[in-house]
Amino acid sequence: MRAALRDMAQAKRIPFEIGKIYLDEDAEKDWVAQTLIRNLSGVPVETIRDKRFLIKQFLGKPDPLSAGKKNILITRFYGRRLKSCPGTSRHICCGYHVINVITNCPMDCSYCVLQGYLNNPLLTVYSNWDDLLEEIDAFLSSGPHALLRLGTGELSDSLALDSVLPVSQILVPFFAARKNAVLELKTKSAEIDHLLSLDHGGRTVVSWSLNPLKMIREEERRTASLDERMEAARKCQEKGYLLGFHFDPIIDHEGWERGYEETISFLFRRIDPRGVAWISLGGFRYPPQLKAIARERFPNTRIFLGELFPGRDAKFRYLQEIRVEMYRKLVGWLREADPDLFIYLCMESEEVWNRVFGWSPTNSAHLNRLFEERLRGFLRA
Amino acid sequence: MKTIRMISLRQIDLSDETFSVNFLADLQSLRSSIQEIGLIQPVILREKGDRYQIVCGFRRIRVLGELQSPEAASRMVRENDVEEFKLFSLALHENLTTRGFNAVEKALALDKLIHYFRIDPTVAIRTYLPLLSLETNEKILKTFLSLARMEDEVKRYVVKEEVSRSNIRRLAAFNTEERKAVLSLISCLKLGENRLKEILTLLEEIAQRDQCLLKEIVDRPELHAIVSHKELTPSQRTDRVKTALMNLRFPRMHQLEEGFEQKKKELDLPPGVSLHHDLHFEGKRLKMEFHFETLEEYQSLLAELFTLPEKKAFQKMLEEEN
Q1: B256 contacts in A (CB within 8 Å)?
Q2: Which DSSP string do the residues of A279-319 spell out, in sequence order?
Q3: pLDDT tens digit string along A27-41?
Q4: Helical pair B193-210 and B165-172, crossing angle rounded to 10 deg
Q5: Chain A positions in Cβ-Cβ contact with residue B204 (cut-off 8 Å)
Q6: Nearest-neighbour CA in chain A from B210: distance (Å)
Q7: Is A40 exposed, middle or buried (0-12, 13-18, 19+ CB in 10 A)?
Q8: Are A281 and A330 a contacting pair, CB within 8 Å?
Q9: Other Cβ atoms closer than 10 A to A18
Q10: Cβ <8 Å between A355 and B322
């Protein structure tokens, strides 16, 4: 594992501004810390004893989140780092598992729920990876007959830092050797260079969050352009990776129909739909505390101007009528590209599923089984 | 400054407000006190050329003038004896110990400290925010500095209605014209903290979404009709304005509400029966409530409700589009 990192091709320049690395003295000897510091050789490093004091200092800044995104904290994580995706209450979820490798994200999307969720604003890399891999191993050994889906894209972007901290070089081969799991690397970046030379054994799905050009430009700061994402996806498909796409959050904005139709059409001009493992659809939704935070950080954002109301899980969502209309249209355009695409709704009710597809998974476990069947089909092939 | 002298009011420059942060000063109790027992505490004046500048005692001198008193007991400061900033600080402390400041006066004090006396903002945050009983952070300083720059009529509204800091920030996000337009609407409503927040947010979001001026929204005929309706109480007017703005902000929801009300009307439900849709139309569930007092009323209601399934309007309502 260490050798893989040592042999890593010359580190690219990170596409984000990093002002400083704060190195927790407990993490000093970890190879993850050493790799990251080596690859960011121009960035000053300060060794710290008390990370709680550092976090408190950042929380006292006028915009802790913006400041935190430009500074890396390398520390150890002593709790569980593999968890069931929390999903949302009283809605159908997909039985996903979340691996916590990095928390926070150098990208800055105005709709990002992490803004109201994390109590540590720093871009935080957990350096005790040996523990993490052991934890994943133990978890997978406990359910040898299932086909589990695990991903690193919940509390950060899976690949945003891959040019300086090649998480993929460790996790992709690790999952290639597992029979009962698939790894999903979910990103808005185009950082896929390290992936291309890896033996993934068909056990890694590389997926991209997609939105129309206008939304990427206005609401997804410091992310790769749509064209760069598509090109990266094309290269991954060429190397045999399964792909995933997430139209999530779908944002109701002026010209949304044309925007999403063009995005889908653009997608399938580059990508063979037969190699797409799944596509998710999820209307923009947010916990109540997000609006004030995001509006303060991005006064010109237009994401809150739709007709959003609190739902059964207290999160704000578009009026059901609007969501159903958006989902139906997107499903129609996607099915035009390939009627066999596996499309699912993220955090939606049975009623919405029924209105969009004419059927619904009976519960989250049922949806999970459908994913398993879908993946087994690819793995058999 | 120890000696007390009687100074003629004519020698005092009332237009010089260098040391004043007064705004909407309540002079009633001070007037009664001076009328009753005269000036207890001498004012502080600073020599300036052949006239005097008021350092402490703007309200007292105003009352004395109103009461046509020819002179005021004063302590004097020579023109170059004490720096202006120290005198301003003295005035702040004197006022704070005797009466306290309203929000606009705090704003004016901070504005003078930063923009006239050129105090570093970090010093203002550390030293003067706590002095004014405010939390020590940049956001608070910015809030009050923005208030100091608002129009006098808006400032009066802020003081009179005790507008909260978050709503001051909302008002600060508008330009002068927008603020005046908003004020013309909100000043005739009965708004607490939350209602004001709702109204300002609705206005702001409609304007941002439709890329129009706030004045265009405020001038809409439906809002004008409500505001100029003389029979309405302020609280009825407030409810109606809020509903009108909600309808503008959420047109699809408004359409659904109207459709539902129309269908309900067609059902011709008996009196005492109400029908409700799922919250925000998130589900298709309907909820029916009815009230009765006697057994007869109960039986009669049930008999009428029993015939509901035969009504086409009811069937249509339940066969909602899927």
Answers
A1: 319, 321
A2: EEEEE-EE-TTHHHHHHHH-TT--GGGS-EEE-TTS-EEE-
A3: 999 999 999 999 999
A4: 20
A5: none
A6: 10
A7: buried
A8: yes
A9: 19
A10: yes
Cβ <8 Å between A319 and B256: yes
Looking up tokens 């109590």 gives A119
Q: What interhelical angle do B152-160 and B176-186 show, nearest 10?
A: 40
User: Is B253 in Cβ contact with A320 (below 8 Å)?
Assistant: no
User: Residues B23-48, buried b or exposed e (16+ Cβ, 10 A)?
Assistant: bebeeeebbeebeeeebeebbbbbee
CB contact under 8 A, A307 and B283: no
User: What's the pLDDT band for B184 if we cut at 50, 70, 90?
Assistant: very high
- C-alpha span between B257 and A321 (Å, rounded): 13
Task: Give the span between the Cα atoms of A278 and A371, in whole angstroms.
Answer: 8
Q: Which residues of B touch A299 (CB under 8 A)?
A: 173
Question: Residues in chain A with pLDDT < 70?
Answer: 1-14
Q: What is the dihedral of CA A336, A338, A342, A347, to 10 degrees?
A: -20
Give the span between the Cα atoms of A193 and A12, in whole angstroms: 10
**Helix/strand/coil percentages in chain A, nearest 5:** 40, 20, 40
Give phi and psi for A210, each to the nearest 5.
-125, 145
**Residue A340: C-alpha distances to residues A25, A204, A275, A336 (Å):** 52, 21, 11, 10
Q: What is the pLDDT of residues B229-287, one digit of tens each?
A: 989 998 999 999 999 999 999 999 999 999 999 999 999 999 889 999 999 999 888 99
Q: Which residues of B55-91 are buried (b: 16+ CB within 10 A; e: fewer)?
A: bbbbbbbbbbeeeeeeebbbbbbeeeeeeeeebbbbb
Assess contact for A204 and A175: CB atoms under 8 A.
Answer: yes
The Cβ of residue A141 has, within 10 Å, a number of other Cβ atoms equal to 10
CB contact under 8 A, A321 and B281: yes
Identify the CA nearest to B186 among candidates B176, B175, B201, B196. Answer: B196
Distance CA A70, CA A85 (A): 27
Specify the pairing of strand A108-109 against strand A220-221.
antiparallel
Check residue A377 and give its pLDDT. Answer: 92
- A353-376 pLDDT tens trace: 999 999 999 988 898 899 999 999
Q: Which residues of chain A make contact with B173, given a CB cutoff of 8 A?
A: 299
